[in-house]
Design goal:
Largest sheet: 10 strands, mixed
Shape: globular
Number of helices: 10
Distance between the termini: 28 Å
Order of helices and strands: EHEHHEHEHHEHEHEHEHEE
Structural class: alpha/beta
Length: 318
């Protein structure tokens, strides 16, 4: 058998929007981010062996909206391209697997979200169970309130700390984009002074029906972390995707994070829909690039109340 390849994040860039990107299309929001990340990696547009993106047509309000952003990528001459109807963290996972299998040596991964085009509170209800939950139109904050109540009843959110305001979450509407470049082996070392090697990554999903889950725990996060190798050695940094503050408690317990770990040093735990998870991966990699971290954990989530979770472990060279 061929041994697994070493794959690393070699470049990362993102927008800094704190609200709606007024007057900008998704392609216009994405273009400067792509220019920045490709410049950092030393790649020309279209030079990456594989391109993978994450976004949501439901948020954009039109079918195949992700194809419009290919104008910013540059798809002529034709490129090898794929798309996931998910946060960009899952696009990174697909690109990582592509490189691991030897089908590519470099990959451009990007994500974009423009929820200001509609009402994400209504849109996201369509991801719920179509028979029992979706007809009630519960918005994400209402479902998060159920989780916060369960945590309070279990005694997990008493006292000061991140759970003091259990329903605190991201701004109601935030548009944005992020991108990373992945590369294998010697190519990664040529493109980056200190690559952030992806030592493991895994994602797991829990039952669709909230009534079948213990909202005070996240077994999918724990299992993904175990399969990604997060518990084999201590991490010094953790970038957690936390849409609502009470979920920070759930994730820290599932990931066994104590006070020795610097959590979310980037200063934010959420971000634009479809982009926030990729940002967590990018921020963890960026700390390794700068020498601020040696072994970091990155987490992304999707769905109501931490339904679907992805965990990756990144390391820098000694």
């Amino acid at each position: 058998m061929t041994p697994p390849r070493d794959v690393a994040v070699v470049a990362y860039a993102r927008t800094d929007h704190q609200g709606p990107a007024e007057g900008l299309s998704e392609a216009e929001t994405l273009l400067p981010v792509l220019h920045e990340v490709l410049d950092r990696a030393g790649l020309a547009p279209g030079e990456a062996d594989f391109t993978c993106s994450g976004s949501s047509d439901y948020l954009a309000g039109r079918p195949f909206s992700f194809t419009l952003t290919l104008d910013a990528v540059g798809a002529w001459p034709p490129i090898a391209e794929s798309h996931v109807e998910m946060d960009g963290a899952w696009a990174l996972y697909e690109a990582w697997v592509k490189i691991l299998t030897g089908r590519a040596d470099t990959a451009l991964v990007y994500a974009h979200g423009k929820p200001s085009a509609g009402d994400p509170r209504d849109v996201l209800t369509r991801t719920l169970d179509p028979y029992y939950l979706a007809p009630l139109w519960p918005e994400p904050a209402s479902l998060a309130a159920l989780q916060a109540r369960a945590l309070a009843d279990a005694g997990h959110t008493t006292g000061p700390g991140p759970a003091a305001d259990p329903l605190a979450g991201p701004p109601a509407v935030a548009d944005g984009a992020a991108a990373v470049v992945l590369a294998a082996g010697d190519a990664a070392r040529r493109m980056c002074g200190r690559p952030a090697w992806i030592r493991g990554a895994d994602h797991r999903v829990e039952p669709h029906a909230l009534g079948l889950r213990d909202l005070t725990d996240s077994p999918s996060t724990r299992l993904a972390a175990e399969r990604a190798g997060a518990f084999r050695a201590p991490v010094d940094t953790a970038e957690l995707h936390v849409p609502f503050a009470a979920q920070d408690v759930v994730l820290r317990r599932a990931l066994r994070l104590d006070d020795t770990v610097t959590v979310n040093p980037s200063g934010a735990a959420a971000g634009p829909l479809m982009v926030a998870g990729l940002i967590r991966l990018g921020e963890a990699a960026d700390r390794i690039h700068r020498g601020a971290s040696d072994r970091a954990l990155a987490h992304a989530t999707s769905g109501p109340c931490l339904q679907h979770n992805l965990v990756a472990v990144l390391e820098g060279d000694a």
